[in-house]
What we know:
Layout: H1 2-10, H2 16-22, H3 29-40, H4 43-53, H5 57-82, H6 88-119, H7 124-148, H8 156-172, H9 189-192, H10 204-217, H11 222-232, H12 244-247, H13 249-263, H14 267-296, H15 303-331, H16 337-367, H17 374-402
Amino acid sequence: MNFLQFAVWGAYLTCMGTYLGTIGHAESIGLFYSAQGIASLFMPAIIGIIADRYIQAQKTYGICHLISAAAMISLGLYGVNTGTEAQMSVMYPLYFIAIAFYMPSLSLSYSVAYNALEVNGMDTVKSYPPIRTFGTVGFIASMWAVDLLGFQDNANQFLVSGGLGLLLGFYAFTLPECKLSKSNGKKGIVEILGLDSFKLLKDSKMAVFMIFSALIGMCLQITNSFANPFITSFGNIAEFQDTFGVKHANILISLSQISETLCILLIPFFLKKFGIKKVMLISMSAWILRFAFFGLGDPGSGVWLFVLSCIVYGVAFDFFNISGSLYVNETTDSKLRSSAQGLFMLMTNGIGATVGTLAAQAIINANVNTQTEPMAQWAGWTQSWYIFAAYALVLTVSFALIFKYKHNPDQKKA
């Protein structure tokens, strides 16, 4: 389940931007990637209610994937049949439907997995993490398959994703049954949608942490959206046309996911040794390097800088996402932990990622998409990466000065 869950995503997440650029919609890359954040603002809560009260979670999970897969296959078929004549008015609604039903499946996959382990008498804390690594393996395998099949710049990537989604959707109905919860009393719409979690912001330290989480969240989807289009754009420069990076950008970028898998193992040590503030500062510093190395590198003699960018991505992503989630869990009352996690996801993958992707698109539109000469476009990409790095630098310094935290390594809490 975990392998397929993330293989569905990996088929297009890092190369969809290249496809959009190929068919003349480079200015819409940010809009497509921001759909994930927009959908994350409301769909997980709505689907979560259905899975808790009305349709068993494993069935809801399967239905979500079947609907998402149908929309994704429709998008792929439309793209294949229309080529460069594909219209945004058709593509975007189909993509939004697909992503609107995929995003809730991420949280449902955890519920279904935990239930499957528990009904088999297994310890979820010990048993699930090794299983979850198969998700990253699936993501990487899907990236490589799309790359080697030559689908990075065409709509077949959506057909691969949709096919995997259909397989997972039907498989989900064979998973152990999840019990429906019995509602105790009526709940208001604010509580049902999880909006009551905003009361956590009354605590000044938590408010500062959540605000910075949203600001860091703005970095999350920038390289997923634009790294592949950036690297493949070097194919327009004779010096780089035959380089490995240009021909196999997805495989090169997959080093980021490999690094991510390995860096997960470092988090317990770093949190215990340095505390959440220093760990978050390490993450922010890694974001600076992630963007700066892209600005400095190229697929030729400078490809080692791209490799370094991929290596530091594991630190940038994991030290923020996973450490931040652990900090929220450890510093929040047990009765509010689910709400707190929901708020953390809303601030990072919802508000932060949406605003960040759209802002990045505006910067790239101004610096890259207004240029026609390949060398001028390269210069525009470089300037854009430096702007993103400068943003991360300002964020790092601000967090160091504003977020007040004193670490006690003897405490159990992060």
